[in-house]
Amino acid sequence: MADASAASRARRERRARAARTPAPQAAPADAQPDAGSQDAGSRDGGSQDAAGLSPAANPDEAASLQLLETGTLEVQGRLVDASNATMYCTISADGAEAACVYKPVAGERPLWDFPDGTLAGREIAAYLVSRAGGWNVVPPTVYRDGPFGPGMCQLWIDADETVDLVELARSGDARLRQMAVFDAVVNNADRKIGHLLPMASGQLYGCDHGVCFSAEYKLRTVLWQWRGKKLTAAAVDALRRSHESLTSGDLAAELHSWLTPAEVAATVRRTERLLALQTHPYPPTDWPAVPWPPI
Question: I need a labelling partner for 3 at 20 to 30 A (CA). Which of 32, 36, 71, 281 fits?
Answer without folding.
Answer: 281
